[in-house]
Amino acid sequence: MIKNEQRPLNFEKCPESDDELKKRLEIEKLINKNIDKNISFDVLVKLSLAPYGLVNDDFRRILWPQLAGVDINHLGQAPTLDKFQCHPEYNQVVLDVNRSLKRFPPGIPYEQRIALQDQLTVLILRVIQKYPNLRYYQGYHDVAVTFLLVVGEEIAFAIMEQLSTTHFSECMQETMEATQRRLMFIWPIIKFENPELYQFLQNSTVGTLFSLPWYLTWFGHSLTSYRTVVRLYDYFLASPIYTSIFVTAAILLYRSDEILKEDCDMASIPEDLPFEDLLKTSSSLLNKYSLTLIEKDVEELICQERRKRKTDEALIVKRRQPATSNRIPIITKWLPNILTAKPVILTTAISIVVGVCAYYYNNQYLAAGIS
């Protein structure tokens, strides 16, 4: 589903700009105003959507649970890893967690890294054991590790539990059919905003597979900048469920010239993209196009694809029919002559005819691509 080759996450800190400093002081003041450090939800959403988001992990540790609707005063204690070793998803989760070493801070002591890996495994298995209707998918660990690194094991579990039953519930169904359909929501947005780009992408039959890791992991799997990943998580936690679709559309629209020149790796995301501008574009698109409008256009697109498939299938059948009907007279032409021969010759001749026909039919079917 998602390529295993993952680049290391860059945890390098950037110098704080004047605007970022101003935002940090604003959030600090709001947090310190209340003993419980809670901020009005509407204010919190505005802060998360605005440039620089929640600024740093110290604030995120306090404010992400509030955004996700998690009560940190009522958290359960995490069980030990051995409690899950009989779970049917255990081996797959452990395998994926072991692959996620590049998502941990560099230089982390070995003992601490092992402890974090165990915590991540337990966190994931706790969710899917509590909700048997939810299925683990590759990429889920990329989301979970981000929350684990920022807020710690207990709060990360509570947030992942909440998101798994809302934002990621479609991705955790028995099949990926609902997710594949959701990714098609990209196309109406592109069509409305840039018809030339839309037509080019449709003609190229690029599909939506390139954006699957973006959607499944909130871009966490595809980006190498930790700073960018957590900034995007600020935005997604404060936004409607399918907002990552609009961010995907914003990226494609921004890269339209590059795509139209056919000089673009669709699956890769350049690290130098102006993400704050892209998030503004995403919010604008989200306000501009309702999900109802987009869904209607997707239904039309699906109907077009079905009609095209039926037409293609009908053409294939039509091409095969003449070749089949023309073989019958050949047999009827031979049989009268064969039936006038002596019994021994008759048996031999019929065997030869059957063999020739079988060989003929076999070759014809192979030529038509049928096995």
Structure commentary:
By secondary structure, the protein is an all-alpha fold. It has three domains: 18-68, no CATH class; 81-171, Helicase, Ruva Protein, domain 3; 176-293, Ypt/Rab-GAP domain of gyp1p, domain 3 (Cyclin A, domain 1, Orthogonal Bundle). It is built from 18 helices and no strands. It has helices spanning 18-33, 41-49, 57-68, 90-99, 110-130, 140-151, 153-164, 177-183, 186-193, 195-203, 212-217, 226-237, 243-254, 256-260, 275-288, 291-325, 328-339, 343-367. α5 runs parallel beside α7, α13 crosses α15 (275-288) and α17 (328-339) packs antiparallel against α18. The relative contact order is 0.09.
Reconstruct the topology from this structure.
Blueprint lengths: L17 H16 L7 H9 L7 H12 L21 H10 L10 H21 L9 H12 L1 H12 L12 H7 L2 H8 L1 H9 L8 H6 L8 H12 L5 H12 L1 H5 L14 H14 L2 H35 L2 H12 L3 H25 L4
Helix pairs in contact: 4-5, 5-6, 5-7, 6-7, 9-10, 9-13, 13-15, 17-18
InterPro entries: Rab-GAP-TBC_dom (IPR000195), Rab-GAP_TBC_sf (IPR035969), TBC20/Gyp8-like (IPR045913)
GO cellular component, one term: endoplasmic reticulum
GO molecular function, one term: GTPase activator activity
Features of the shown structure:
mainly alpha, Helicase, Ruva Protein, domain 3, Cyclin A, domain 1, 3 domains, Rab-GAP_TBC_sf, GTPase activator activity, GTPase activation, membrane, TBC20/Gyp8-like
